[in-house]
Amino acid sequence: MNKPSIAPHAASSVLLSLFLAACGGGSDGTPASSPAPAPTPASSPTPTPAPAPSPAPSGWWTPTASTTWQWQLTGTLDTSVGATVYDVDLVGTSTATITALKAAGHKVVCYFSAGSAENWRPDYAQFAATDMGNALDGWPGERWLDTRSANVRAVMAARLALAQSKACDGVEPDNVDGYANSTGFPLSGNDQLDYNRYLATSAHALGLAVGLKNDVGQLAALQPAFDFAVNEQCHEYAECDGYSVFTAQDKPVFNAEYQSSYVNNTNGARDALCVAAKAADLRTLVLPLALDGSFRYTCD
User: Fold this and answer.
1) Domain parsing of the chain, residue ranges
2) Does the reported pTM lie above 0.90?
3) Which tens digit of pLDDT belongs to each residue from 37-85?
4) Rounded Cα distance, 223 and 243, in Å
5) What CATH architecture applies to the domain 2-36+51-298?
6) What span, in angstroms and rounded, lies between the C-alpha atoms of 161 and 205?
7) Is the confidence at residue 164, as pLDDT, over 50?
8) Quick one: CA dihedral 120, 121, 122, 126, positive or negative?
9) Residue 241 class from Cβ within 10 Å (0-12 exposed, 13-18 middle, 19+ buried)?
10) Distance, C-alpha 213 to centroid of its chain
11) Angle between helices 150-165 and 189-205 (to 10 degrees)
12) Which residues contact 218 (CB under 8 A, 6 or more apart)?
């Protein structure tokens, strides 16, 4: 997961630091039609309804496997990268910045955590005490969420509506593999599938593309519901093979690696990494753990 601490940002299973950076260049696809809505869980507190789009979009942007990306969630955003997609923090990136990126010909994906409550976020108080479980290891102020909760889903619906209002082209919901972690809740694999499909369906209903963040154990089941994937360290942990279910459908896999041997190209490690990435048709970047734009090596 990569995410900001104290300041806005975020995302998957990586250490006690900030994260962000990225790469780029690519092409856009054609709008797709929206899937049927996912079921809403029966239990949990009654949420305040999220704002509905008006009018409802008829489709959304769909990237292709060759679409390139830039990933930066913290620090002063470097807008000079020649990537097609900029993946930026939803809350921390202004509408003006998003508008400027789009005017320059980029697509903008907006990051938010969909599986954790971060006490530095402006909507943190909207979570009920019963929504929040164990702390995320290495992330002070952050706790896993009960993604079966109707209230949690209402908060996420509002975040998706914010992404639509800021003119994001797509979203990157993070921490969507709680079932495989010690959350404090009895979340099953089926609970996770239901929640992740709920996020995808809700994003599409707002005309937003949506990426599957990590959750490597459910790639095949979830690929049909998602437009792209975002992965951290699949090369380092030998988990890249499963992403062929995305690339076979011409859906991009945006991969970030942080290992020092890749950063320093120790004994040609980064060169070998890029050979493997190109063979697997992955859009691989070597980035700082802080994802702050301080350096970026691309295999494209």
Assistant:
1) 2-36+51-298
2) no
3) 444 444 444 444 444 444 446 699 999 999 999 999 999 999 999 999 9
4) 9
5) Alpha-Beta Barrel (3.20)
6) 10
7) yes
8) negative
9) exposed
10) 5
11) 30
12) 177, 189, 192, 193, 196
**Which residue in this structure is represented by tokens 């054609």?**
30
Length in residues, the chain = 300
Secondary structure of the chain as H, E, C letters: CEECCCCCCEECCCCCCCCCCCCCECCECCCCCCCCCCCCCCCCCCCCCCCCCCCCCCCCCCECCCCEEEECCCCCCCCCCCCCEEEEECCCCCHHHHHHHHHCCCEEEEEEECCEEECCCCCHHHCCHHHEEEECCCCCCEEEECCCCHHHHHHHHHHHHHHHHCCCCEEEEECCCHHHCCCCCCCCHHHHHHHHHHHHHHHHHCCCEEEEECCHHHHHHHHHHCCEEEEECCCCCCCCHHHHHHHCCCCCEEEEECCHHHHHCHHHHHHHHHHHHHHCCCEEEECCCCCCCCCCEECC
Structure tokens of 156?
């996420």
